[in-house]
Specification:
6-stranded parallel beta sheet; globular; two-stranded antiparallel ribbon; about 40% helix; alpha/beta; Rossmann fold
Length: about 290
């Protein structure tokens, strides 16, 4: 018997293989995050905001098309008037627990914007990352990079901005890694208290392939805090009462190192060729076909 195929499979199918583009994978990501939270007995919501721009130019349109499926999972998409207002709104999603009146354990946030839009959002990123992400929320900041300046006034890459804001960031190389790294990024944000950057380029956003949902069931390891040594007891998540000096101290002493421990535990960075006598190394994302 021939299996009936629907265009909606990309957002409702939980097992098997489906065809996904990079942009559609970014839309599927929060739906899968909500499913994982439910399996872990967490009652969470999602909030997505930002400003469109190539290579993420069609992301907001795809979110609108998937509104029915996002609403079913308590995931709300509100485009920003500009990039920094969108980021500020996402920052606010991490403060819901302070009001003690919500019906959610936490809200995971997703910001999106074109690389040059990230330039103008740096003040928000620095303050929000220093303040921290919530324990059951977490933030993924998706930056669309136009390396070749195909639709930008200058070539752009977001790596230096993420580093300047002391934000760990992930760089998926294909459709499956968008979902896998996205789930890891939100988990890392919750554990470390940092916002997690997410670098997307055109050949990833515009790509498409047969996607195996099995990757969504790979385990995510949450390390203990013992490796943080004397700073293991420092709070890493967002606090109601805080000072700039305390925020910076925790960011420098605990949160960044916690993100590194998460990366090691989940083997995100891998050495392909090892040689103890090497004097030079190459750093690159993997190219997935």
């Amino acid at each position: 018997m021939t299996k009936k195929i629907s265009l909606n499979d990309k957002y409702i199918l939980k097992e098997g293989k489906i065809f996904l583009t990079g942009i559609q994978a970014l839309v599927r990501l929060p739906i899968i995050q909500k499913d994982l939270d439910e399996k872990n007995d967490l009652n969470t919501g999602g909030f997505i905001s930002g400003y469109k721009g190539s290579p993420l130019g069609g992301y907001d349109l795809e979110l609108f098309r998937a509104k029915k499926y996002l609403d079913e999972k308590s995931i709300y998409h509100q485009p920003g008037l500009n990039e920094e207002l969108g980021a500020t709104a996402v920052w606010g999603s991490q403060q819901g627990e302070f009001k003690d009146r919500g019906n959610k354990d936490g809200v995971f946030g997703i910001w999106y914007g074109k690389g040059p839009g990230m330039d103008r959002t740096m003040d928000v990123f620095k303050h929000a990352n220093a303040a921290g992400a919530s324990k059951f929320g977490g933030v993924l900041a998706i930056a669309g990079d136009d390396h070749a300046a195909k639709s930008s006034t200058l070539p752009h890459q977001s790596d230096h901005n993420f580093m300047s804001a002391f934000m760990p960031y992930l760089y998926p190389s294909g459709v499956e890694e968008i979902v896998r790294f996205g789930l890891l990024g939100i988990a890392m944000s919750r554990y470390s208290g940092c916002w997690t950057g997410f670098k997307i380029v055109s050949d990833v956003a515009d790509s498409g392939k047969r996607y195996d949902t099995e990757i969504e069931r790979l385990p995510i390891i949450i390390p203990n805090s013992e490796s943080l040594g004397e700073y293991k007891d420092l709070p890493r998540n967002i606090l109601y009462e805080d000072t700039p000096r305390d925020q910076d101290y925790r960011l420098q002493r605990a949160k960044g190192f916690a993100a590194q421990e998460f990366v090691r535990a989940n083997k995100i960075d891998r050495s392909i060729w090892k040689d103890s006598n090497s004097k030079m190394g190459y750093y690159s994302r993997e190219i997935l076909q």
